[in-house]
Amino acid sequence: MEFDYQITGGDFSSAGFASSHLKKILKQLGIQPRLIKKIVIAMYEAEVNIVAHAWQGWIHVRIEPQAIRLEIQDQGPGIEDIERAMEDGYSTASEEVREMGFGAGMGLSNIKNNSDDLEITSTVNEGTELTIIKKFQ
Amino acid sequence: MQHQPIPSMTQPMSIQEIARVAGAQMLCGAHLNPAIVRAFASDLMSDVLTLETDQTLLITGLANVQAVRTAEMSDISCILFARNKKVTEDMVHVALENDMVLMQTPHSVFYTSGLLYQAGIQPIF
Lengths: 137, 125
Known about the structure:
The complex is a heterodimer.
Chain A: E1 2-8, H1 17-28, H2 33-53, E2 56-63, E3 67-75, H3 82-85, H4 95-99, H5 107-113, E4 117-123, E5 127-135
Antiparallel strand pairs in A: 1-2, 2-3, 3-5, 4-5
Chain B: H1 15-22, E1 25-28, E2 38-41, H2 45-48, E3 56-60, H3 65-73, E4 78-81, H4 89-97, E5 101-104, H5 109-118, E6 122-123
Parallel strand pairs in B: 2-3, 2-6, 3-4, 4-5
Antiparallel strand pairs in B: 1-5
């Protein structure tokens, strides 16, 4: 089962729409609530990151029998130092993003904590790609 | 540091009881009956997204649609907005779609938390 979502940078009013849709699907599929929470939190953090930092982005979701795979790609400023961006507390978020309740530099590490595998590649001034895998057991 | 021991709650608290203790007005979801055992008070949604507990009430002064979305993702089914922060139609819409209760109180986050703590609502950390 596969789904695609398009995310618009800066559009905080719609941030979370994709994650909300995925949550409903995972519920219908009867996935364990604890797993659903981890998957949608990882996806929501990624969705908020696109809205907060990028110009636009796409999320491709692939649900397989044993695992879910989220492929997240954006066009944006990219991440200069991925290792540093993974550290708790490091953030380049704007004041506007902080006023929304985010931008504390906790997102990427929270994605990692809620997934079984996280790969990040990024090119400055082009964009960032994340692959998140969460196994169903 | 350990928090001071308080009388432990034997039964989860109903949202009606929470509203009474916190002097809160129910904005939507009054017909729902989520059981609340503990609460977390924060305006930082990134911090809320790290919680692993259930039966949790969110007390916040941050009134925007992302506060409701954050609660939705975190399986938090009740939000109490402090200082009568304006709750918009968009927020109510997201809450209703996800069977969530929204309330508001004129009290501050600090005072609201104190009232609920005294009534037996547990802290998370």
